[in-house]
Amino acid sequence: MGTYLTKILDVKADEVSRLKQQAPDRRYRECEHDLSASRGMYAALSRGEGEPLRLIAEVKKASPSRGVLVEHFDPLELARRYADIGASAFSVLTDRDFFQGANDYLSTVSREFDLPVLRKDFIVDESQVYEARLIGADAILLIVAALDPLQLEEYIQLAHEIGLDVLVEVHDERELDTALERHARMVGVNNRDLRDFSVSLDTSLRLRSRMPEGIISVAESGLKRQADVLMMQEASFDAVLIGEGLLGDELQRFTWKQP
């Protein structure tokens, strides 16, 4: 992969080296019995025949492509708004350098709501998996393009062992094959090309048809209109992950709530 992801991963490597000095694996073992039970994201995103698409609402202040999205950012206020319109789960950005996220944003949302919370970050080391559990996440994002296949499998297994669900993100057929071979149960198709940040909804439509039954399928990025969401619903996705698109009025008026 090229420019954007490479730059992000270089910065993340430095961040991880500092994190490992804090030994989150040891801290987890010391307090694991005191942690609240995880709220299952897989179960929250499962939908029966005829039920509306599930919404993972993203609590995000900024993005590398558009800069600051919410000037007076209040993660709780955003989360309340999204819960009111019928979100089934939250995604909270914790990457500081590129998305102006923070672990505290996730912890705050996790404490105040009963919905499962996905940690949205660039996870490249097992220390971040333990950290996710410690800060209150119920699930983590693993990006196939950021990991080698063995790392992907190891981190999926570790996450499940400590009570986290995993959304595995793919961008093309090769990455989808890798995700399925490494036993991913939830697969997110990112319509944004991490090499240049361009967006094509055709990516989701193309890859959905290759997913077997039993996989929770999530369409991510570039969904800004009701027509976009309906397209994903007709393609049999189980859920959509939307951040910027929810900042306008159109998708807040969509029928997310159960009948």
From TrEMBL:
One of its GO terms (molecular function) is indole-3-glycerol-phosphate synthase activity. The keyword Amino-acid biosynthesis applies. Pathway: Amino-acid biosynthesis; L-tryptophan biosynthesis; L-tryptophan from chorismate: step 4/5. Its EC number is 4.1.1.48. Residues 5-249 form the Indole-3-glycerol phosphate synthase domain. It is an enzyme of class 4 (lyase). Keywords: Amino-acid biosynthesis, Aromatic amino acid biosynthesis, Decarboxylase, Lyase, Tryptophan biosynthesis. It catalyses: 1-(2-carboxyphenylamino)-1-deoxy-D-ribulose 5-phosphate + H(+) = (1S,2R)-1-C-(indol-3-yl)glycerol 3-phosphate + CO2 + H2O. The keyword Membrane does not apply. Belongs to the TrpC family. PANTHER family: INDOLE-3-GLYCEROL-PHOSPHATE SYNTHASE, TRYPTOPHAN BIOSYNTHESIS PROTEIN. This is Indole-3-glycerol phosphate synthase. The gene is trpC.
